[in-house]
Design a protein that fits this description.
This protein is an alpha/beta fold and 220 residues long. The protein has two domains: 139 residues, Rossmann fold, CATH 3.40.50; 52 residues, no CATH class. The chain is 41% helix and 12% strand. It contains eight helices and five strands, in the order βαβαβαββααααα. A five-stranded mixed β-sheet has the order 2-1-3-5-4, sandwiched between helices.
Length: 220
């Protein structure tokens, strides 16, 4: 029987897991592979089956946390206010007081009922609608001319009957841009490790600082 010792952080899927772990590693947080071999103070990433999987994990994960910190990273998608309302209502059901609006630097609260510290980050930046791809796009150098070209090329491809759905346009734009890097078409986590994205941008630092504050992590 495996004894659960790590705190937890719930994300929508494996793309989120690998991208965020690599971002944290680039910022000096000592994750190692396999992730369960990482220091016990670092949370174990738990990929869920999309946004509904994260939402459905809130109640039980806090109830069974045994005092260990629990975090949730979820896409705001089409409506940031609606997403915050959905997750905050679930937090209130387990005794976490939440503000009307999520703070721009991410939410950190506490369940007195379960003696558990709880955090939420709404992708991309706690303020805008969007998803992981919007977060990563904001980590691209502002002076990079290829991202604008990728956006325009994706728009043209859609006009030419490209088969991706309207909801996947942001994903198509980012993958188009990744196709033009030194290692064409690599996955998000590998791209972060290869420094295609700016791991020390303002938004990246905001996420890392939320993560460190939530899990009481100190780095040099």
């Amino acid at each position: 029987m495996t004894i659960e010792i790590h705190p937890k952080i719930y994300v929508e899927g494996k793309n989120d897991l690998f991208a965020l772990v690599e971002l944290l590693i680039r910022n000096g947080i000592p994750y190692v592979n396999p992730f369960k071999s990482s220091p016990i103070e670092l949370p174990e990433f738990k990929p869920c089956d999309g946004d509904e999987g994260v939402l459905n994990s809130v109640k039980l994960s806090i109830e069974f946390s045994k005092g260990r910190t629990v975090g949730f990273v979820i896409d705001a998608d089409l409506s940031q206010p609606s997403r915050w309302k959905a997750i905050s209502s679930r937090l209130e059901n387990v005794g976490v007081e939440v503000p009307e609006k999520i703070p721009s630097n991410g939410f950190i609260g506490y369940s007195d009922e379960y003696q558990t510290k709880v955090g939420v980050w709404l992708m991309p930046d706690n303020q805008s609608s969007g998803a992981l791809e919007d977060f990563l796009k904001k980590l691209i150098d502002d002076k990079d001319p290829l991202i604008e070209h990728a956006v325009n090329s994706t728009t043209e491809a859609k006009y030419l009957k490209a088969r991706f759905s309207d909801s996947d346009i942001k994903k198509a734009e980012l993958h188009t841009w990744l196709a033009w890097q030194k290692d064409p078409g690599c996955k998000y986590g590998i791209a972060i490790n290869a420094e295609y994205f700016q791991h020390n941008s303002k938004l990246a630092k905001r996420f890392v600082n939320w993560f460190k504050k939530l899990y009481d992590i100190e780095t040099e």
